[in-house]
Task: structure prediction
Amino acid sequence: MLAARFMSRSPLVRSASTHAPRGVAAILQKNPEDVVITFARRSAIGRAKKGQLKDTTVDELLHALFKATLEKTKLDPSKIDDICVGTCHPPSPLYVSRAAALAAGIPNSVPISTVNRLCSSGLMAIRNIAHAIQAGETSIGVAIGVDSMSMHARPTPEICEAVDKNAEAHDCIQPMGWTSEMVAETYKVSRETQDKFALISHTRATESQAKGIFADEIIPVELKGSVISVDDTIRPGVTMESLSALKPVFPKWGEASTTAGNASGVGDGAAICILTTRERAEQEGMEILGKWVGSAVVGVEPKYMGISPIFAIPKVLEQAGLKKEDIDVYEINEAFASQFAYCVEQLGVPIEKINPNGGAIAISHPLGMTGARQVVTGLAELKRRNGTLLCTSMCIGSGMGAAGIFVNEARSASKL
Result:
């Protein structure tokens, strides 16, 4: 099995804290220095170029999200020690993020940074704030993942001729659709299998939206005089027949099995988490939703970028002293059904535990947002089912992958 081979050739990686707990019992202990999440919400997602956020700039979206969060939490913004924004492609991201924070009423004494690790940027923002809290440099921090793929589509990377002569370097900058086709061709993931996994995502997301489940994780934001509170990316009525009728979107690559129906949607949106120590949360009277445990980042051959969760998930589980069976909910990004199907097969995790409300194929994948959205979505689902442990993971353009572990500390009132 790929994951087993990876673990056998990779040294154990030290956790962010040398005293990090390992094993379920230790992880579930509540200690004053724990990094906890006291707020986790996301905006509704808009369909890129056509949806409700197509004319909304990144700073406008951030501004609205900051304002809605401060109003909802009643957090005194002067108590925020740091903000980290995960985003991929807007120009001058630090300037627009800082400007949006100031315009939302966050004082100029609160610093801000941005991080770009492509599809994991939102998770990296959470990770950066969590590490700063663990190091004692930050007490209350805010992590955000945001992107407007309407305004800032993926640029075409350019490298010099000397670098491009290296085969892996050349593969590193190829379009993500090409990597999807390479995974499908090399690992024999058929078009039918891809469509079957896509149908699961579309069906689950449609049913969850109809039941109002996403309202638990979406914070309404006001933009241009309108309140945005419902995803416009989910397409009801998708069937196996309608999926199989779609033409390939990359006909010149591989076996041409990737379609608009079995690949992640292109979208716009943002997600936010507030983190602090357990001790500070209790002092401030903040509700504790979850606990940060740890994360892991891996590299893989760029040509097969999409298979990286197969390595990232075992790595983060090993760091935490957990087994895959210990996890109640997995949020694994569905960049493409080709890579997602292969990851599910290789990981050996029941599909019932993975993306129970649908994933990026149905909901969409604003690049910088996804890593934070998965945490918001996963914690909300754990609260509904009174589950305990969440594992998130995603592949990352250029040939990387990431994963994170979180503990649910919120309980559904209907099940108490």
In short: The chain has a mean pLDDT of 94.
